Amino acid sequence: QVHLVESGGGSVQAGGSLRISCAVSGYTVSNGDMGWFRQAAGKEREGVARIRNYGSTRYADSVKGRFTISRDNAKNTLFLEMNTLKPEDTAMYYCAAVYTDGDSLAPAAYRYWGQGTQVTVSS
């Protein structure tokens, strides 16, 4: 049974930083692609970042250069470091595991999801 639990969200001013975490059980984070997604109010879920089993990373254009996806294999935890946050980054952030097929920044490519952690950026 795969379980994903996000934490670390909150409210910050524009230009600030947050580091959110995804604690994983029932699955080894280094076994395959994992991703971070977000869903703003009134919008569909979109891919933010993904990391492959060997460590290669990919980012949406909107966050490239500001966000960093990483993992701690010993703790079996996925992270997303968010810097220079903008109001348009406001969303519920979800982690996803067990990549199946297709675009690795598409929600449909993943089988398991956490319940999300809210990030709100004000200015």
Offer a few descriptive terms.
123 residues, mainly beta, seven-stranded mixed beta sheet, globular
Report on the structure:
- With 123 residues, the chain is mostly beta strands.
- The protein has no helices and eleven strands.
- Strands 2, 4, 5, 6, 9, 10 and 11 form a seven-stranded mixed beta sheet that branches. A four-stranded antiparallel beta sheet has the order 1-3-8-7, with no helix packed on it.
Q: How much strand content do the residues show?
A: over 45%
Average pLDDT: 97
Unreliable residue runs = none
Please estimate the helix content. Answer: under 10%
> Which secondary-structure class do the elements indicate?
mainly beta
Please give the count of helices: 0
- Largest β sheet strand count, sense and barrel closure: 7 strands, mixed
What's the count of strands?
11
Which quaternary structure do these chains form?
single chain
Radius of gyration equals: 13 Å
Secondary-structure element pattern, one letter each: EEEEEEEEEEE
Distance between the termini: 41 Å
**Global outline:** globular
Q: How do the strands and helices of this protein lay out in sequence?
A:
Elements: E1 3-7, E2 10-13, E3 18-25, E4 34-39, E5 46-51, E6 57-59, E7 67-72, E8 77-82, E9 91-99, E10 110-113, E11 117-122
Parallel strand pairs: 2-11
Antiparallel strand pairs: 1-3, 3-8, 4-5, 4-9, 5-6, 7-8, 9-10, 9-11
